Amino acid sequence: MERTDGIRIAIIGSKGLPAVFGGIERHVEEIGRRLAGRGHRVTVFGRRPFSTNGEYLGMEVRVLPSIPTKNLETATNSLIATLHSTFEPFDIIHYHGIGPSLFCWIPVAYKKKTVATIHAPDYRQRKWGGIASVLLRLGERTAVRNAGGIVAVSKLMSRRLGERYGREITYIPNGATLQEAPDFDEAAGLGLESGRYILTVGRFIYERGFHTLLDAFRTIDTGMRLVIVGDARFEERYAASLKGLADERTLFPGYIQGPLLSELYAHCAFYVLPSLLEGLPISLIEAMSFARPVLVSDIPENMEVAEGIGTTYAAGDAGDLARALKEMLTMGDEERRERGWRGRERVEEEYTWEHITDRLEELYRSLLV
């Protein structure tokens, strides 16, 4: 018999709330708040300095210790959160990311219901050394072989994991909230003009390809600004190299969230995502939700979201990116608007957080029958 009362859900693997750093955190915040709004009891385990104990948007945020180094922070926090949640009365323990999922066998051994969401093949990021890469691959394998429900955020990843491990993988993507464009208010304080800048958003890691974007932008004769929103943690050398590649037209405003980030999305001339590796890019979906035209590298994950709508270029090729930038800069206003609205329509059809929460709630209930 299907249960209809609230589900007690533990979420492990994010840095915590509010979501001020990465894609997993945004995913957890948007889905968690909606699950809480539907009467479920959601506990998000986090860590300092990203979180504090308390209630946030209807969710309980619980801060647990970690060893704050690149290789140990997520692993130690996830292990401690696993031990707490295994011996508390949660109905579902939901892991986010292949690193945290390394520990999902522990609650399974105690007959707890588990779900693991695989956001990206993180072992392909060059920042991880040999041992870390092996452990991340083991985390993926452990999740798929042990968790009651496996979620992949892209159709491509769902298909590949299903073929690799021979089990059903549930596709539940990242998303965005459809909203009207806000006024250009706070963003003007950054020295920007509405419609007179190119935007990109993401963590400062090599796989985001910001170095390729800067190489290409330096060759373009334009009065447009380039705004790169984001920051680095444990990748300070790469962040410094980006600022060394930038010219005076480039602005690095740091990590931004909330209304100011919405303004930047809504008023950019176009959005560019130069990634070499993605899971399913939330920033791209958010830009499309504001009806902005997009320019993306041709990796499969970007194409899954923007194919037939965005302008593309060969990933990692600064010369081809320069060509595509010129194409976007010379595009007529009517075509930009038409492409932007086609992107927003795709978000409405495929990537709204409400639809995504429906699908996750359905998965939870199927495990608790």
The count of helical stretches stands at 13
Tell me the radius of gyration. 20 Å
Coarse shape: globular
Note the main sheet: 8 strands, mixed
* CATH structural class of the largest domain: Alpha Beta
Can you walk me through this structure?
The chain is of the alpha/beta class and 369 residues long. It folds into two domains: 8-175 and 352-367, Rossmann fold (3-Layer(aba) Sandwich), CATH 3.40.50; 186-350, Glycogen Phosphorylase B (Rossmann fold), CATH 3.40.50. It contains 13 helices and 14 strands. It has helices at 23-37, 73-86, 105-109, 130-146, 155-165, 210-217, 236-245, 258-267, 282-289, 300-306, 318-330, 333-350, 353-367, and strands spanning 8-12, 41-46, 54-56, 59-63, 92-96, 113-118, 149-152, 170-171, 197-201, 225-229, 250-254, 270-273, 294-297, 311-313. The strands form two sheets. Strands 3-4-2-1-5-6-7-8 form an eight-stranded mixed beta sheet, sandwiched between helices. Helix 9 (282-289) links the parallel strand 12 and strand 13 (294-297). Helix 1 (23-37) crosses helix 13, helix 6 packs across helix 11 and helix 9 (282-289) crosses helix 12 (333-350). The longest helix is centred in the C-terminal third of the chain and has 18 residues, at 333-350. The mean pLDDT is 93.
